[in-house]
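Subject: BTAD domain-containing putative transcriptional regulator structure
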Amino acid sequence: MTATAERTTALRIRDLGDLVVEENGQTRTVPTGTLSTALALLAVHAGRRVGSDTLADAIWGDRTTSRSSSTLDSHVLRLRRVLEPERRSGQASTTVVNERGGYRLITRPDQVDSLRFARLATEAAALLGQGASERVLRRTEEALRMWRGRPYGTAADAPWAAAAVARLDELHHQVRETHIGALLDTGDVARALVELESAIADHPLRERLWAYRITAYQAAGRRADALHTYSEARTVLIDELGLEPGPELRRLHAALLAEDTAAPPARSRPRREPVSRPGALHLPTVRTPILGREAEAAELGHLVAGHPLVTVVGTAGCGKTRLALEVAARAAPTFTDGVWFVDLTSATPDRVPDLVSSTLGLPTPGPADIAGMLRDRRTLVVLDNCEHVLDAVAELVDRILATGGESAVLATSREPLEVPGERLRPLAPLAPGPALALFSERVAATGSEQADRESAARIVEAVDGLPLALELAAGRARLFTLAEIATQVRADASGLSHTGRRAPAHHRSLRGAIDSSYRALPEAEAALHRALGVVPGPFTADLAAALAQHDDVADLLGGLVHRSMLTAVGAHGGASRFTQLATLRSHAQHRSAALGEDHAPRRDAWVEALVDRQPPFGSTALRNWHRELDRNLPALRATLQRTLVDAPSARGVRIAGRLAVYWTFGAGAIEGLHWARTARAVCEEDPHLGNPADRALTALVLGSNLMAQGHHEPGRETLQEGIRAAAGLSTDADLVTAALTLATGPAFMAGDTGLVAELAAATRSLGAGRPELDVLVRHAGFIAPFLTGEDPDMLVRVVDLHRDATAAGNHYTGWVAAVSAVQLLLPAGRFDEALSWVRQAVTDCTAMGMTENFLVAELLADCLALSGDMAAASRALAIAEAQHVRGGMRWPTLEVTENLLDRVVGSVGRDGMERARTRLPGHSLADL
């Protein structure tokens, strides 16, 4: 070996953290600034030429000074001195060489930590799939020792480094998960739990980590801790993503509840021991790494090892083929007679046996011949893209399974084969993190150096992380900026297409890929698919029925879910919901437009009818009404947008004016203020829009919102306008009286006695001669004397009002009376009575479905603190603070709370308060 070769071999670039050069056990730190930037860029492209312009842009950005080629050469010369301090003057560099108007870093993969890390990650994942856990641990431990911080040091935040950093970050997450999985496989539960503690703290949204912790606790015999872990995971996922746990976590939870012995994650069946030699691989060459699918690949690998038929089902472009190829390649050691891939994209039903026979090399075609050949062998056959030849594939697979041999079939399809013994593995689009990493890598592969992370995230969101859509969007980076691409996909998510010649026919355009599924739908299902395009999010079957105008909507929804044209997102408040992916929704809208269909009026009419079904003010029936609105919130928002912004109408004003209680006490105060302002602006622009009651309601809703969020003067003026509009109304008197009563709350909080008196007078005028409005009139009437303190019998008065309100089924007035009693009892030192009344207020609020009430939460905290229960007070304060922040309110609202905060913090400590904020199961009234 020459001296040059020996020197090159000894050199190592440590780029997983601050940039360091290591040689013969000695380390040299690369100076930050120009040299570290240059080395980082060369390391990202190790072994490949980096153009001088690209290197100059990375070093100087938009600065125009010092960009001459001689200046760049001098910086490269300084970098060479860092890499090769012993190189003599005039001697050729062995590390950074000039090449065709650029520079190339000459290294072997093992000399650059980032490249070595990626290789170890890939090897470890493959070995884990083979059950070689000890070998996995050696590789993951080596990889994790190399990780010293954010890759590329100070260059990590540079735009050109974003894609590489995102990819390495994702690989780091995967290595940690693989490492923990190997620890569990080897029985080192204690160490796995230690590793999981920090991993979950760093990445609480990765479901695989929670699944590993459940498995570890169960293996340690700590079933209660395992159950608590599931509860923690579910809370985090719902709070942060609005999603229920995935199938793996639900399976583990079900096993725990059944006191079953759950298997480790993705180890649902006993593994076959790998044989000593792998079978021959007959798979298409894959040149790109799989990203974001490690959990699915591991789970599928174990399913394939233990079941004769596994089908991966999912929508067009979700990555079924790529995942199947990965799983098949990893499974090769188990299948001693080979792994075969059959692409059925262009097959017709009568040609399926011929195509499979010719791929397997059989001299004669036919299902019986294929089944006979596989009966005595251990072979894996991958049948890709089965959806358009389902019956033929199902017949063939049924024959194969009937022989009872050891061969297995891994199928990909947009709907199940429905063969007895089939194990389904639904495949969803990528989660945001892996999707962003995939998109960034594909953008970099086009030669583009764009790194607009914000626009990239918008693109990922707009296409729901669908891999095919990400690939096609990345292809546009050669022509457009990422910001332009984001605008394009938001306008038409299904309009992406491949611009070259070599894409598979069924992947040349996203709309074409979806069309192949759409054309196979029965007409009724196709019509529902198109109609659902007007709902930009989850919806219930009731709304689907209104859009479909069809009796058998359940069957139609089931058919679309079965064919991966619709996603069931689980129950919400007791009712199942469904949603279209953004790409499918865009396709539905495109098809509807081509046919001249407009489904928005039907959606808007259904939403209006739902809003009009508002139960009596303060009744327990409000709970179900609120839930129905929650379940169809995307449709409600779309209707408000269309009827108040796109095409302002009386319908929009009517809907906005009837949602005061829903927005105010359902964690939507800020959004409610937005729609109230919009509706008010529409009424001002067109004085004849909406009937008098709707216009009055609009003003009252907006005024209440403004005052509640501290905008006293504009709120007061708007409420007074609403009071004038309400005078003499003969229709909807109950709704307007309720709105007037509701407005007394924020007027009371502002201490505006005069405004409270005006609101009370307006309720008396509307309620005259209407016994059913008596409680509301009394409610509005006691607020002013309560503020002034002029009534010595006020406590008796509010207690009587609470009794009569609850007897009339008005829990809204009930909770107001209850907290009024609390505020009278606390100054008198009657803390136990006050605590009893505030708990009654919580009961009244939850009875009618309120999820938010910042005043009740705050008063409960005060009562608990004054009663001496500081730990409970800290938890209630955390909930109250969260509700104030969400509603845009000043925190704290009450002077007594201000005085008690220091006492509570002094008792539980600042750490105790922080734990109360972060460890609550939720921040709603139900959590009180």
